[in-house]
Write a structure and sequence with these properties.
The structure is a homodimer of 568-residue chains.
Chain A lengths: L5 H27 L4 H12 L4 H4 L1 H7 L5 H24 L2 H7 L1 H24 L12 H13 L3 H10 L6 H28 L6 H36 L4 H20 L4 H14 L5 H24 L10 H25 L4 H12 L2 H13 L5 H25 L8 H4 L5 E2 L7 H16 L3 H14 L3 E3 L2 E2 L2 E4 L6 E11 L9 E10 L5 H12 L4 H8 L3 H9 L8
Parallel strand pairs in A: 1-5, 3-6, 4-6
Antiparallel strand pairs in A: 2-3, 5-6
GO biological process, one term (chains A, B): proton transmembrane transport
Main location (chains A, B): membrane
Membrane topology (chains A, B): Multi-pass membrane protein
């Protein structure tokens, strides 16, 4: 068998390691500034690809990412496997039944937010094919259908993540938006599958178009009905008669790979098959959370970053950056998608505010658009410049989506407790021996840096403490007060080795003390923070671990990795 | 960039899907008959490779697994990534500190079980290089060193699994064996790394040998001291300042890949670097169980099966099966490794019985031997026939290890509750309305099929029930008795929709009733079974779920996937 040489193996490992490390680091940084991880992951590829590294040091770039030969094939093989597993995870996230549960509302929004962008896109591509840089190899009809689809598709994972971050995922608004997005994706991918099949078939005739549409629809229906039923019936059997959790894990991955192969075999792109199998799997109530998490984590944090970073290696984003085209695509995409969402939402009798939030939510294109772009680029449907414009549009729409919804709904971001902590407000060795001293010692820290009036705050916290003591048991105390003029919540953490008597119901001394100061204007913040903290410390071993930490970083690590009622 | 064509993608997905499916199914079957999964996984490759499928249908074999071209490269790239991740997991399992904890005992066994096989192997290869089929390209010294190493290495994962299956892993004997095996592996891999480096360097001189040995030792020491320290210090930082659990997961995988690249760069094989990084990672008390599990499961159930099955594609096992060589290698391997283990154990003043058990435990070569063989085959050190002999030896030694230890220690296999259940002894709709009727109804099932005396058993169970009722609360009852003449434990399950009053301490009616009959001779079986059952049903939701099941398969799925105090 032909194998990789030692040099090939070395290059493959170096390129994979560097790519994954860069993608994850930039992905984390993107999330720090409240942006989707995919923004950072793509940027990593642009930095390591022809755009930046290839310009600064062509030799290093050629060494790490040779454009031809075994290493190019090896990286493409791993990226292909990665995207198939990623689409499987995207499919698992789809909740088919919620489309029906949301009824006509989701349907109306889903339809309008496809119909309007699709018509606009079709019209624009038919009228201005040259401005959009249609390659000569790409038939006008196929090209126009692609532009129409590219404008219509949504990014379910990004939308879901944005809504989750704002605690809107399980709200009525959230479920309507999600069900509309699922409909969007499903129809978008079916159209795209048809386009790809048409593109692979040079002698396109009316018959072949009908045949492809028929095959795609038949495949979709088959997997989502018969396949789904079969999977649902098989899962208990797999769980009962194989080693847990390995059996179910392999079962799911094998199905996704074979589903991808099957769809490739009948002429639809592999990723569509993986997506459908994922949807069928995720729909089964028998699929265990544990399996979902293992697949989701390994794919989201290993495979997906490799795939998205590898995109940056394909194209020189600087060279192919055509400002006019980028602007045109971006404006057209935003305008017609937001319009579609708003009109659909108003048709579904939602309030004006909610309608605009819906429009901006549906507007984010994220990873899905980029995947679509890669496939179209490789199939020769679009030019490099249009590909760059699509990527910029995908990132831009994803980045504005969250902030715009926050503005429209006047949403006050609730940070997690770990996000609110800082080493400045951390007292590893609290000196105090009683509550009054502890409060005094802890209040001093924020007052020193922010210029708040120490006496005023101390009095407020102490007054609250006297009215009802804040020792909640299990070694925790949460003294707190609402402070006028405070802009955002402040948490000070103090750790007392000897313990302080905060008059807890279980009579235990408090060792970990969270002083919580919240703005007077934000009535809910205090309760949200307190309930998150007591949730984290529900596990008895947490207190013990907290007393063993050596510094602020250890404390943060403890909070972030605390078990939070995982379902297994 | 050079990419895979549609045809390539189709073939890649089909081959991966088929390979993984076959490997997992045969791996599960192997485990059913108490054999290591790797036996089945290898067999899957032999079935799909040139040995069987290639002979039966050369066209299909060529289509699925083309020996040259992009698909051969793609599969090799994925298999290479797989083996690197597998060695990382093997490294994580190594507990470096236990070598020190076990002190001289483990050291003595470790030394003897390397020294004796190594000398025997060296002597045999130097005396009989032609019987062992030395290829002309392989220098005699390198070849002999390889044979010596191949006979000396153990298979830590297989040994660990065998001991765990027998509840011996945490015993004194278990820890001594494990620490000896770790020492074995560490030294074995270092020697092998040196061999590979010598092989890659055609003009071998005394200087270059010294240089290679120096580099390998320096690399090992560097990673296990400085690298280990750095990883331990970095983990809390990663946990504190990245999204959990993605940050730690990526950190571990990136380190393993870069460690592999580094070792490849300095001329040692990549897998050695991954193994060392794994050992350094696993040694840190900061590495979370959750991360270990996610990596372990994805690698053990997806990557490892692909790798081991892909081995079968490389060689025609029938054509290269040389009986004399297979027999020689097998006998030599067993004889000198068992001798080494026994002598070392006796030197460490262990009893004769324990010494023999140690010898057979150390004798299992499993996956590690096969990996060593693949590397040597690809480096041209050994012939195809010797490779086949090594694989047979690796599988054979792993397969006899468990049964032999059981015989030597007269170990009574404790099956898990799920392993003891059968659909024949399952009453989905118990008719009884009181304990006496329930016992009568349930006792009938085993008596009907085994010919046991119904009245006798019923009386024994009822007598036990009268002396102290067996309703243990939470809707469970565990009526039981020890029965003379019974060969192995029998469990009958009955589910009562209405509930039966087994006089539980929480006054709840029993809905799930396990009738447990154990042999009179086995004093511990009853307690072990009862405590496993109550552990499974500790979670309140289990009873609710048990009442919803539709058949025996559902019930088995419920038991197997029940949360059992996972640490997260």
């Amino acid at each position: 068998m032909e194998t990789l040489s030692h040099h090939n193996i070395l290059v493959m490992l170096l390129s994979l390691g560097v790519l994954l490390a860069a993608a994850r680091i930039l992905g984390e940084l993107a999330q720090l500034i409240k942006q989707p991880a995919v923004v950072g992951e793509l940027l990593a590829g642009i930095l390591l690809g022809p755009t930046i590294l290839g310009t600064l040091s062509p030799e290093l770039s050629l060494f790490l990412f040779p454009p031809t030969g075994p290493n190019a094939i090896a990286l493409d093989a791993i990226a292909t496997l990665a995207i198939i597993l990623f689409l499987m995870v995207a499919g698992i996230e789809v909740d088919l039944s919620s489309i029906w549960r949301q009824g006509p509302k989701g349907l109306k929004i889903g339809i309008m937010s496809i119909l309007i962008p699709f018509s606009c896109g079709l019209a624009a591509a038919l009228i201005l094919p040259d401005v959009l840089g249609r390659p000569e190899t790409s038939p006008l009809l196929v090209f126009s259908l692609f532009i129409a689809t590219a404008l219509s598709i949504s990014a379910l994972p990004v939308i879901a993540k944005t809504l989750m971050d704002m605690d809107l995922y399980r709200s009525d608004l959230g479920m309507v938006v999600i069900s509309a997005a699922i409909l969007n994706d499903l129809i978008g991918w079916i159209i795209f599958a048809i386009i790809l099949a048409l593109m692979g078939n040079p002698g396109v005739t009316a018959d072949s178009v009908v045949f492809t549409i028929g095959m795609t629809l038949a495949f979709t229906v088959l997997i989502l009905t018969f396949g789904r039923h079969l999977i649902h019936k098989s899962l208990p059997f797999v769980q009962a008669y194989t080693r847990w959790p390995g059996g179910e894990l392999s079962f799911a991955v094998v199905l996704a790979i074979l589903g991808a192969a099957l769809s490739e075999l009948i002429g639809i792109h592999a990723i569509f098959g993986a997506f459908l199998v994922g949807a069928a799997l995720g729909d089964s109530s028998h699929l265990k959370e544990r399996t979902r998490f293992t697949i989701d984590h390994f794919v989201s944090f290993i495979f997906a970053p490799i795939f998205f970073a590898s995109i940056g290696l394909k194209v020189n984003f600087m060279e192919h950056f055509d400002f006019k085209m980028v602007a045109l695509v971006f404006i057209l995409a935003c305008f017609c998608k937001i319009a579609g969402g708003v009109i659909g939402a108003r048709w579904a009798l939602m309030s004006r505010k909610e309608a605009w939030a819906t429009g901006f939510a549906m507007n984010s294109r994220g990873a899905m658009e980029i995947i679509l772009g890669v496939m179209a680029l490789e199939a020769g449907i679009i030019s490099h410049s249009l590909f760059v414009a699509l990527v910029v549009m995908a990132l831009g729409t994803s980045m504005i989506s969250g902030p715009m919804i926050r503005i429209i709904l006047r949403y006050q971001q609730h940070l997690s407790v770990a996000d609110m902590l800082t080493s400045k407000y951390f007292l590893h060795r609290l000196q105090a021996s009683n509550p009054k001293e502890a409060i005094c010692e802890m209040v001093e820290l924020p007052c020193r840096t922010t210029g708040l009036d120490k006496n005023l705050i101390e009095a407020a916290v102490w007054e609250r403490e006297l009215s009802l003591s804040t020792g909640i048991g299990k070694g925790l105390a949460l003294p707190h007060a609402r402070i006028e003029g405070l802009k955002h919540a402040i948490i000070v953490v103090g750790i007392s080795k000897d313990g302080i008597d905060f008059d807890a119901p279980d009579d235990k001394l408090a060792h970990v003390i969270f002083l919580i100061l919240t703005p007077l204007s934000d009535a809910d913040a205090q309760l949200a923070i307190a309930s998150e903290i007591s949730g984290i410390f529900r596990n008895e071993s947490m207190l013990e671990k907290a007393l063993k930490i050596k510094n602020f970083t250890d404390f943060m690590a403890l909070l972030r990795t605390a078990p939070r009622g995982w379902p297994f």
